Amino acid sequence: YTAKLLGADETNDLAVIKIEAKNLPVAPLGNSSNLLIGEWAIAIGSPFGFLLANTEPSVTAGVVSGTGSNLAAESGGAGVYVDMVQTDASINPGNSGGPLVNALGEVIGVNSSIYTPSGGSIGLGFAIPINRVKRVTEDLLAHGVIRRPWVGIKLQMAPPGTSSVQARGVIVSSVVPASPAARAGIQQGDVRVQSRERQIHSAYDWEAERLDMRVGDEVPLVLRRGSRELKV
Predict the structure, then answer these.
(1) Mean pLDDT over residues 167-185, rounded?
(2) Sign of the torsion formed by the C-alpha atoms of 86, 89, 94 and 99
(3) What mean pLDDT comes out for the span 52-74?
(4) What are the Cα distances from residue 33, in Å, to 18, 42, 108, 214?
(5) Average pLDDT, whole number, for the chain?
(6) What confidence tens digit (pLDDT) does each residue in 179-211 have?
């Protein structure tokens, strides 16, 4: 089919395309927020493109190895690979963009990347959670672009030598005047501990949370200021 690009989001490594066709089979979408470590995961795609000269995709099977995985190494593109679904189902070149499905055949992620020192699959594959895919898709269909929320803060990690209790969370290093953060009462030196249901242990956690936010959302935060915990 000839496809038309309706919108793309390089940061999330996703795009929405449209084809003129009817009565196509569709895969049901699952829920990536309640995945269980060890449940079955099946990756569908076309390894190495059309090298095999087959019209049908192939599948590889494994389990959900982890959730909320962050890839700290820099990638070749503009993508931010945080809060990913990790799987040991083989994901090879050509599998990217294909679905990761559960035992019920529900799509729980979009295969995106692997970690490999050799260039081949070593059982460290990563998929974009389907709940984030849903949000990005809705934004692209409604606006053609992703509208990224802006809060108005800069964060820094806890300095070396802090206790394990003090190190929980990330420190607010600056707050932009008149920003949403400033209006909420967030101050320089506050420690971000929680955002909605997500515990904030590092800047990666905050970046993952921000990718799941929509412009206009009211987000409950838990801060630590000195010995007190505040909700804003």
Answers:
(1) 90
(2) negative
(3) 77
(4) 27, 17, 9, 17
(5) 84
(6) 999 999 999 999 989 998 888 888 888 888 888
Least Cα distance to 200 among 149, 228, 158 occurs for 158
Record the tokens describing residue 170, joined without a space. 């990330």
Reported confidence tier of residue 81, pLDDT bands at 50, 70, 90: confident
Residue with tokens 């909605």: 196
Residue carrying structure tokens 């959670």: 129
Work out the burial of residue 54: count CB atoms within 10 Å of its CB; fewer than 13 is exposed, 13-18 middle, 19 or more buried.
exposed
Is 6 within 8 Å of 73 (Cβ atoms)?
no
pLDDT of 165 over the 50 cut: no
**Cα-trace Rg, the chain:** 20
**Which residue is listed with tokens 């929980």?**
168
Tally Cβ neighbours within 10 Å of residue 165.
8
Q: How does DSSP assign 49-97, residue by residue?
A: TTTT--SS-EEEEEEEEEEEE---SPPSSS----SEEEE-S---TT-TT
Supply the DSSP string of 88-125, one letter for each residue: -S---TT-TTSEEE-TTS-EEEEEEEE--SSSS--S-E
Q: How confident is the model at residue 156 (pLDDT cuts 50, 70, 90)?
A: confident
